Amino acid sequence: MTLDPLFTTRCIEALLFAAAEPLSVEDLAKRLPEGADVGAGLADLYARYAGRGIELVQVAGRWRFQTATDLAFLMTEEREEPRRLSKAAQETLAIIAYHQPVTRAEIEAVRGVQASRGTLDVLLELGLVKMRGRRRTPGRPVTFGTTDAFLEHYGLATLGDLPGIAEMRAAGLLALDLPPGFTVPDPMGLRTGEDEDPLEDGDEAPEFAQDFLGDAS
Question: Where is the sequence biased in composition, kind Acidic residues (predicted)?
């Protein structure tokens, strides 16, 4: 008994459309009624879909439907994976935000621990922090401050909108007793940076941050 060729083609089309993986001629034959001409059905489908958005292709001896190769660009989607800051990075960012312009040594003094080599690198890479200038003190250490991207990320119009100590305590974000040496300055009283000189072209940045210097002016 020979099946209607159109019916065979439709059956193969349905099987390939629903299959999670490519199907071989043998796979299709097992699912089709006896007498079905699988080869003819595949040839018919191949001709029908040639030049369309979806094409019938053979991969490693098996058949499947796939997007036409010249339209693959339509299927490309770029996703930006959110990057979570470590606790150390969050603490460092908070210190920079409230104490800027601040040096690495000053950050370590407030936190009470040595700054990890990669912590500032991450903040610089994400564009939340930038190098502002050099402190007019022995060694001329580089100072750090926040960027416009920091304000945008946290929905702040200006640094003056940073929460003060009373607001942080009211929100339960700050213990009643601060750790020794830790302070939360008034956001409106941030230093102006008059005690620092701007970085100049060719000015050497700290080794840990040289890869992410970018525009540090």
Answer: 194-206
Domain 87-212 in CATH 1.10.10.10:
yes
Q: How many CA atoms lie within 13 A of 208 on its CB side?
A: 13
φ, ψ of residue 103 to 5 degrees: the values are -90, 165
171 vs 173: CA distance, rounded Å:
5
- Gap between the Cα atoms of 163 and 59, Å rounded: 60
User: Quick count: other Cβ atoms within 10 Å of Cβ 54?
Assistant: 12
- Strands laid side by side in the 129-135 sheet: 102-103, 142-146, 129-135, 196-198
Does the predicted TM-score (pTM) go above 0.90? no
Span(s) in the chain for CATH 1.10.10.10: 5-75, 87-212
pLDDT, mean of each 10-residue run, the chain (217 residues): 82 91 91 89 92 89 89 77 80 88 88 79 91 88 91 83 72 51 54 67 47 35
